[in-house]
Amino acid sequence: MKKFSLLFISIVIFMAGCSERVQENPFFTEWDTPFGAPPFDQIDDEHFLPAYEEAIRQHREEIDAIINNPEEPTFENTIVAYDEAGGMFRRISPVFGGLRGAETNDRLQEIAREVTPMLSAHSNAISMDQELFARIQAVYEQRDELGLDREQMRVVETYYRDFERNGAALPEAEREELKKLRERMSMISLQLGENQLAETNAFQLKLETEEDLAGLPESVRGSAADAAESAGVDAKGIVTLHNPSWIPFLQFSERRDLREKVFTAYFMRGDNDNEHDNKDLFAELMQLRLEMARLLGYNNYAEYFQAIQMAEKPENVYDFLYEIWEPSLARAKEERAQMQAIIDREGGGFELKPWDWWYYAEIISQEEYELDDSEVRPYFAIENVKQGNFLLANNLFGLTFEARPEVPVYHEEVEAYEVFDRDGSHLGILFIDPHPRPGKRGGAWCGTYRSGSWDNGERISPIVTIVMNFSRPSGERPALLTWDETTTYFHEFGHALHNFFAEGRYRRTSRSVPRDFVELPSQILENWAGTPEMLKEYAFHYETGETIPDELIEKLKNAEHFNQGFINTEYIAAAILDMDWHTAEHGDEIDVRAFENESLKNMGLIEEIKPRYRTTYFGHIFGTGYAAGYYVYRWAGVLDADAFMAFRESGDLYNQELAERFRNYILANNAIYEGMEAYVKFRGEEPSIEPFLIQSGLK
Ligand SMILES: [Zn+2]
To answer: Among 46, 110, 245, 545, which residue carries the largest CB count within 10 Å?
Structure first.
């Protein structure tokens, strides 16, 4: 016995030198963490690849079992079995995807490059599998005789449509071609995103002298100094191309030359003819998407995309965009004239340029709207804003929140909360990850580490994350958010609620809504954030505790009309650019710059405004998610303004009957009600564009 344990000890010592071998791969074991959250502290980058390999093997086995089932295809043995297959992916992919967005590193990116083609080969093989498709088609064809309920009917139809849209119904040669196209497209998407990140991180403006800081208020100087310190740069501060850095700099810097430098770096990302240039890659992507759409029987990619949206077809999207474009552009021209008048009044002797817009908008904001960013921020300390979100969820839906520091998280800045439903039952876990870090993608988003689902009649609760890039605390001072950051908080929180409430027995349909519907649950919450009723319940001065004064509330309300010409113009310009890319008849040669210029010229965009995203850093349309779909935010903007109007008109912002209908038709039962039907169930009629135009002061 003794000898044996000595031998045992020496093995342990030997293995301890090689930590990944001694540590079990957590993707192969059950997670006994609180609430079954991913055990981030035990997950090593090196675990992903072997886990993915095993997940692919298991999934394939599950699919083969469906195909080789000697019984005739039924709803249960085909549709339900297929819906449930792939369980191991559901553990790995949310963690891998979540970390790649919020806490990435070179090794993870490398693994992604290795894993992506593996995964797309695997999913292509399944989505083109003729035997599997034949079984699904068999169920689909007898669906009317199977006694299915509405939800079951939808899941059958949705799966059938998925296969059809993937090309499963095409002859073999075309299926092969499609497969190659898809593999190449997913590699390109990945590369475009990486280039964008590299280009964003590549730039840094050093602020070295007092003159370089001219015009910058204390808070902006503070953040610039903090940024320099954490980047290890010896300077008074640095400006980067991350939004919380460059936007305030452009708003306040009196140094026109530096503003030009920063903004030029920003809008030239991916277009610098260097190793991170995105032009050729994007051009190739456009050709491949067009080719794919044609193979599937559509005239272009936009048609293919919109076929399953609320909008239904490109013409409807264009009509919608131009309906807002006209008043937006007209207003932008008025704003431009107003800015030029200030320049002339001050004897500037130059013409307004794109990098001047934020600076003069800030002057107008202070003069006309008297809305001073530094006056606003103290009322929006990040903790108060969080409490405001919790309160809104409580007022509308009766939810409550409790901090759960024992739940493992992937970074010390991430907070975990347990969410309880009105009756006190456990609803899920919410992660909040508020501030920028070098390994975090820009922007703000909501994701899940586990989707809500049902397992043999038992509810598996979701683990939802909201990730932002908000202003950091500075020294002793807490993070004070801009108004824009505050509304973004509510926005992402709205997506989180959607995830918490989702019901439905089948994975495919329980949380699945059209892209031009998905921003409704998020954007509608932004409406509440700015009402006097809500503000008085969460906007307290971070030092004095004083409630936000009426006068400032009034200013915030007026400010809803501020710069709306610019905001809508830059947004819709990007949305039309996206549509132009995805409806054009591309030939073999695409000159990306020329195409973009032509598109902007056709819509009549003024030179002083750049589209919100230029082609080479238009991350939304690099992947398939928002390609031909960037319009969805404004589409949802019209929906959310109209939906919020229902609460306003009722005379009670927390009208419980409306809140219940909203939860039921818009948030919870997407597995049963879809798009316009769901909306009409909630609202009683189709949405009107009027509330949006009035809200933005465009009418
Ligand atoms: Zn959103």
So the answer is: 245
